[in-house]
Amino acid sequence: MIHAIAIDDEPLALSLISGYIRQTPFLNLAGEFDNPITAIEFLENHSVDLVFLDIQMPDLIGTDFARYIQNGPKIIFATAFEKFALEGFKLQAVDYLLKPFGYDEFLISANKAKKLIELEHREETTLESNDNFLFLKSEYKIRRINFDDIIYIEGMKDYVKVYLRTDPKPVLSINSLKTLEAKLPAKKFMRVHRSFIVNLNRVETIERFHIVFGKTLIPVGEAYKEQFQKFLDENFI
Predict the structure, then answer these.
(1) pLDDT in tens, 15-61
(2) How far apart are CA 111 and CA 115, in angstroms?
(3) Last residue of a domain, one of 125, 154, 176
(4) Buried b vs exposed e over 14-25: b needs ≥16 C-beta within 10 Å?
(5) Which domain range does residue 31 map to?
(6) Which H or E element spans position 127?
């Protein structure tokens, strides 16, 4: 089941799209909004897969809304203005419905979104790990990452950087550090900072609670010092 919301400041258009969502077996109407600001507040507390989005709206136009929620739900634009189509596709919208449209056109777009969401879900499941490696989606590819090759992982705002001994450049992936941490074997990896996970087998030098990897110094955060000290004590001679 794909959880979808509709956003349109025109009551008739909003009612039509919401009705189409209810009519579609694989869609669940999670919410309908005549104001994009209210929709943003909803998305902050609810998981949504797909947004049917008008463009010409007061307070916040649809394209700006789409930029705000990038890397979030998939978007299908539904608008009366053809001139925004190019910008919509630049924002990686699944489809662009030009008003007025019927249920047949709506269903074609919804099916496009369904196939894309299902494909990404299958790719995400490849992140499941075993004792030796995991598969990680990176830049439209799926990379096999051997645990022994990982030096450390850095968490950024919307993605992670995986630093490998076999690659001069880090592997970038749209994932959270928390998600990746859950897939790594706890005996081999440790979170030492809110922004860093290290491969314990690659730790060779520590200076004043900073782990040294070449010219890179990774701090051990206050919340993680006790756990890291326990690791040191267990392996100290």
Answers:
(1) 999 999 999 999 999 999 999 999 999 998 888 999 999 988 888 88
(2) 6
(3) 125
(4) bebbbebbeebe
(5) 2-125
(6) none
